[in-house]
Amino acid sequence: MHGTGMRALEIQSLTGPDGVAVVDRDEPADDGRSVIIDVVTAGVSFPDLLQSRGLYQVRPEPPFVPGLEMAGVVRHAPADARVAAGDRVCAWTRGALAEVVAARPHEVFAIPAELSFEEGASFILNYQTAVFCMGHRGGLRAGETVLVLGASGGVGTSGIQVAKAFGAAQVIGLVSTEEKGQVARSAGADNIVIISDTWKDDVLEATGGKGVDMVYDPVGGDRFLDGIRSLARFGRLVVVGFAAGTIPEIKVNRLLLRNVSVVGAAWGEAAAHDDTLTERIHEELLEMIAGGHIHPPVGAVLPVERGVEAYRLLDDRQAVGKVLVRFRPDPS
User: Mean pLDDT over all residues of the chain?
Assistant: First the structure.
C-alpha cells in the first residue's frame, strides 16, 4: 500500500537556497485525468534557482513544491494516455521535486531504452529547449558552425549535442575553466575557448576569421555583445536565457553591420500555447538518440535529504552537467 505522505522539496521563502527545505507533504490526489508517477530522480535547473528568489516568470506564493522535470515509474494513468502503469517515463511538470507527481498526459513521455532514469530526468527541458531554439527558431542547417556559451552546464552540453545531431560542421564551447572545457569536449564540442578579454578573437581564429553561423546563448550578461561580434555574415544569436543574471542590451545598428539577427527563443512559452509541440520535438529527439548523438551528461546526484545542496551547486556556479535529486532507488 502507498501511504498518503511523501517527501518533497519545498520553497518556504523567496530567499534562494536558504529558503528551500525537505518536508513531508500529502501526495497529490488522483483526479482521474492525470498520470500519477512514483519519482526516481528529479532535475534541478536554472529556472528552479530563479524561482527560489521569485525571479522566474512563474511566481507561486510560498510554500510550494518546485521542480520542472523528473523520471520515474507510472503508478496509474488514464486509459487514453500514451503511457500505462509500470512504464519508465520522464515528464516536465510543476512540482517535480517530490516522491510522487501528478502530470498531465501530454507532459509525460516513455524513457527511451537507451537512457537511464538519471538521463531521463536530464532529458526533457534542456534537449527540448535545444531542438526548439536551434532548429525551430534558429534554423540551424547541416554544415554550419555554432558557438555555445556556458558550454559545460546542462543547457550548454545539450546544445552541443543537438547542434552535432543537426549536422553542425564545427561546435565551439565557451567555458570559464579548462576543467569545464573537458566537460564540453566530452559532450562533443570540437573546440574549446576559455573566457578572457579576447575570447571573441579566439572564436574568429578557430573559424578561419569567418565567425560562427549561430551563437547559442543561455548566459546573457557581458558575453552577449562579444557573441554578436563572433557572428559570421548572416549569422544569428539565439537568446535562450540569462544565467549571468543581467539582461544585456544592444544598439541595433550592430545587426546591420554584417546582416546578423538576434532571435528570441522561449520553448516554455511556445509549449504553453501548443500541446503538440513537445511531442513533435520528442520524435526528433528519439531519432537523435537512435543516431547516437544524445547522451545527457549527469552531474551531481544527491539523495533527497541533501536536496537543498542542488540549489547551492547552481547558485555557486559549481554545477557541471545536470544536477539531480534522487527520491527512491532505481526499480530493479
Answer: 93
